[in-house]
Amino acid sequence: MSNDQPVTPTTSTASSRASAKAAHASFTGSQKVKKLVVAATAIGLTAAGVAAPVKPQPAFPEWLIDTGINCDMTGASLKKPLTDLDKQKNPLKNRYEVPERADIDPKVAIDDFLNPDIKVSAFPSTVMNEEKAASLTGYIVKIEDGGSETCNCQTITKTYFDTHIYLSKTDPSNRPPVPKGQHDTTFDMIVEVTPRMRQIMKPNSTEWNTNELKKAFPRGTKVNVTGWQFYDREHEPASYNIKHVLTDWRFTCWELHPVTAIDKMQ
Question: Which of 112, 119, 186, 212 gets the highest tally of CB atoms within 10 A of its CB?
Fold first, then answer.
């Protein structure tokens, strides 16, 4: 992993961890208070012969509150039932804990994600581990909205979309244009900012929204990104290190998802 040090970081790992813990504690505390108030009110009303109040809405971050959608960690599909893979993977995509130092595997670097010698053996991996986080140094290739996904209950509100960030080992600024029908990101990896992490790390701010991230981290920006390791198996048909087809739009199914810190580098 690179020994470069971040400068003017958007979010330091230490402050990210502290912020996430404080946010989680705040939400947990507010839930407990709500339950006590509702319980006390119910006892009083029952004694007076009045029906008990309706249960309060579940609280973020266990639930992602969108207009008309109470979306839990497992997500939902509006068109058909969730698959077994959705039920297994969506709670990992929706993690909201910031990794401690012991959670970050210092041996894992961007080379492990983008190594051309790692081919069909991409999963299972003897290097990567979904129970561990990683901190990678690379270059921004492209940033875009992830769109409507089952992990976010297929919301159509962009505020609740994941943000997909494509990372390269080398500066993509001077890449030649790719032939028609191919993708500029075939040999790049993806890291994702999720709506839960966006709300926890940047409360009452648009700083981690897709458009603001595009402005802050234009193509060619060198960054250090920290997040949880995740294997998005549903994208195996589009991953170059499995199919070796130049029309694939990503190199590997291995991601950092969710991102918990992104810092500019020199």
Answer: 112
The dihedral region occupied by 147, where left means phi > 0, alpha psi between -120 and 50, and beta the remainder, is left
Give the residue numbers spanning the domain of 18.
Answer: 1-266
- Both tokens of residue 212? 């603001």
Q: Name the burial class of residue 240, with classes exposed (0-12), middle (13-18) and buried (19+) by CB atoms within 10 angstroms of its CB.
A: buried
Greatest C-alpha distance within the chain: 76
Query: Looking at this protein, which amino acid is placed at residue 126?
Result: T
pLDDT digits (tens, 9 = 90+) for 143-178: 999 999 999 999 888 989 999 999 999 999 999 999
Cut 0.85: pTM above it: no
Which CATH number goes with the domain that contains 16? 2.40.50.140
Number of folded domains in the chain?
A: 1
